[in-house]
Amino acid sequence: AEEEDRRAEAEHAAWEARGRVPSEIDVYWPDDLQFYVAEVLGFDASTGKHVLRYHIDKQVEELDLSGEKWYRHLRSDEEGGELLRRITAVFEAKRTLLSSPEDADREGGGSAGDVAGGSGDTGGTGPSAATGPGPSAGAAASGSGDSPLRRASAVAAMGRLSSGGAAPRAARGKPRPAGRCGACEGCANYRAGLERGRSVDCGVCGHCRDMTKFGGRGRLKQICEVRFCEAHPSSRKSRLAKQARLQAVNTAWAESYMEERDKWERGHEERCEAQRAAREARTAQRAQIRAARLAARREARRRREREARKRGSGGGGGGGAAKQRAADAPPRKREPPTPRVVEAVLESNGQPGYLERFLVKWAKRPKSEATWEPLRKLPAEQRAALVTAGREAFNRRVEPLLSGSPAEPSSSGVVAVQVPEHAAARCAAHLHTRWRDGRLLLRQGATSCLGYSTYGKTLSAHDAQQQATHTLLMTNTLLPLIRDELPGFGEMEQFLVAWLHETYGVVVELYFAHALRQSTLTVRSTGFDVHQDTEDFPFIEFTVVVKLTPDAPGSPHSRMRLVGAPRVFEYGAPAGSAGAFLARAFHASIEPDAGTSEHLKIAFFFRASTKGERRAKRGLSAAVLASGVEDELARRRRHVALELSNSNLEAQALAAEKKLAPWG
């Protein structure tokens, strides 16, 4: 027992003398991608360095192990022998795959870092990869292989065992027994440096310029290029050879692929040709079968005819001869049905664009059989007259004023109204000064009100550029700005809303407006042909066109017309003269006479407001019933209210009777 205690005390004293480091360790050298076995002889506490003696060359070196990668050396006869053989094989396989010292340093250093800084004879159990003579080298040789699958498995296993460690240190100028061929120029320069006691460096290559002794930052940690071994995997010749081998493999693979591809294409063409021949054979066979069936049917029909003739001739009467004559007689052709002829167009449904239909009365048929037809069903030579007749009937139905005497001004279908003259004059003056090049600036130039150029229903050939210059589109979005910045506009709007409520008993609100210049020079842009103001917005109920400028002395009045009206409507001479009419009615401008001055006009488009509309209708009806007297204006008010409330009933009835096709 005393002897064991003395042995334990001696081992503990040796452990403390070695600075708590095992007696044998494996030290990693980054330039050689190797771990070398070294014996720890002692420890200098003043400098913090250990005294090591390498087994491979018996050289002694003082080294600070705190900045190095090392682990306890395992012998093959110890408990970790099997682990030693496996890890050595993995490291050798990975070292074979590495192509540069940087990759080897990064990958190999990670495996050694598992036990870097381990202490005690029993504290470190990390792997050993010593390549010197002995069992470690034999295990490495026996564990490596050339199989790609084995190499990939070795790399994966090495990656799982790696966990990082201290940064690798630079080369220390010791002999490099492994990784050099010893016959190239780089190896000769390396040996010359060893004999002279200092390395042979060129001082101009990239590695030398990075060295601290040449003023570099010392980050690459690589030797001079003149000392590179040409057989080393990181050398340029080795890389070029590897690239050449890879290119040869790729070329061989490409040639093999193209050969197989050509072979497949030839086979594919042969298969397609065989399939085509098979299809042609099947088609010919089907044609033969059809011809045989047709011939059989013809023969059967002839046989039946012969038998019928025999039976008819053997009857003894004249019935057989009559049947034979009937059979021999050519078949009678059916006469085509008599085409329908348009006699008149009774009415238009008033729908905009392609939805417009015309109630057509056909010749030699009663009115009860009249049908709704699209425009394309009308004869081309009579189309203009028939369309005009249908639109006149529609206007007379929706606007009862057109049925009055031509001597009455109201028979034009447009009701004259005078807006405040000073408001119209202020608005015209502002437009004269601010409306330039089809643009009205708002918010001090931040926003603009522009014209439109795509409305082609003009009295003459449409001029898009002129239309964009002489029109302004005051959309619903711009109306708040227009009311604030266009003088007189808001006052005219409020006046017209109150006037329409008083005249028609309907609460309305302004939806959008147009400003335009009209003269003899703008017929192609602002002189409009027959149209409706509900083409884009079907919910518009009333249109009021206000003339902002007065007529020049002796100048003809500006005019417009409703289709089917007994007389035209003339605007008054003063500024603010206006005309109000139903937006659904078909109307058109009248080309101004020579000498007519240019006028500024604003067309206000109102829609029925849901607020107060029913209340206004009820109040109007109560007033009429209370008075007991129903004059012309009261009758018109009641008619307009009825039209507004039942505007969709007619279209619904036509759709229910399937007389109105939805798309023509």
UniProtKB/TrEMBL annotation:
Transmembrane segments: none
GO molecular function: DNA binding; zinc ion binding
This protein's record includes keyword RNA-binding: no
Keywords (A to Z) from UniProt: Metal-binding, Zinc, Zinc-finger
Gly residues: bias regions: 109-126
Annotated InterPro entries: Chromo-like_dom_sf, Chromo/chromo_shadow_dom, Znf_CXXC
Biased composition annotated in UniProt, kind: Low complexity: 127-147
Domain CXXC-type intervals: 172-230
Positions of the Chromo domain: 340-382
Database matches in CDD domains: Tudor_Agenet_AtEML-like
Keyword Zinc: yes
Residue ranges of the region described as Disordered: 98-151, 290-339
Protein name: Chromo domain-containing protein
Source organism of the structure: Emiliania huxleyi
